[in-house]
Amino acid sequence: MKTQELVNRVRNEAQHAWENITDQYSHLAQLKNAAFVAFKPSEGEALEAGQGNGKDETHWALLPIDSYEMDDQLVINVEMPGMELADIQISIDGNELVLAGEKRCPPELSQGDQKFSQEIAYGSFERRFALTGQRLKKTGYETHYTHGVLSISLPYDGEGRRDTVRTITVQ
């Protein structure tokens, strides 16, 4: 193969690789939204794992939601696989629904001698999203956590107040 042919081939392959990278980055940028949530390890877990060296050990994961109106209520479904009910907190702060909690690393994984990969995010998190313009009732919220999906039903009421903080119990 002649030198010029080799240079052209390398240039074409590099251009193809660059286009592939930029396409993937563009796709990621489109996905970039509030569904990407920071999971921060608790201080104790970070020290146990030998991560107390000042490095940022934040992991990012998706916490996607679907929301829709049905009958006189707002329904929100959140994918939260691997969570325990006791580790999920829901509140309404003004015009925002706040989901917070902690996804704990299973003991058998934290005691492993050698990790080959860790793509699942563990740690504490918080996700906020704006509620619709309608006012919510102060009571009557319903929640269910089934198969890793948290469903929240918030009934509308023309008299609800947005400037209060309310806590919702997960069932």
Descriptive labels:
single chain; 171 residues; alpha+beta; Immunoglobulin-like; 2 domains; four-stranded antiparallel β-sheet; 3 helices; 35% strand; elongated
Layout of strands and helices, then pairs:
Blueprint lengths: L2 H29 L4 E4 L3 H6 L10 E4 L2 E6 L2 E7 L8 E6 L2 E8 L3 H4 L12 E8 L11 E5 L2 E7 L9 E4 L3
Antiparallel strand pairs: 1-2, 3-4, 4-9, 5-6, 5-10, 6-7, 8-9
What's this model, at a glance?
The protein is an alpha+beta fold. The chain is built from 3 helices and 10 strands, in the order H-E-H-E-E-E-E-E-H-E-E-E-E.
Largest sheet: 4 strands, antiparallel
Number of strands: 10
Secondary-structure-derived class: alpha+beta
Spatial separation of the terminal alpha carbons:
69 Å
**Name of the level-1 CATH class of the largest domain:** Mainly Beta
Q: What would the CATH topology of the largest domain be?
A: Immunoglobulin-like
Give the helix proportion (percent range).
10-25%
Mean pLDDT: 80
What's the tally of helices? 3
Strand order of the largest sheet: 3-4-9-8
- N-to-C order of helices and strands: HEHEEEEEHEEEE
Radius of gyration: 22 Å
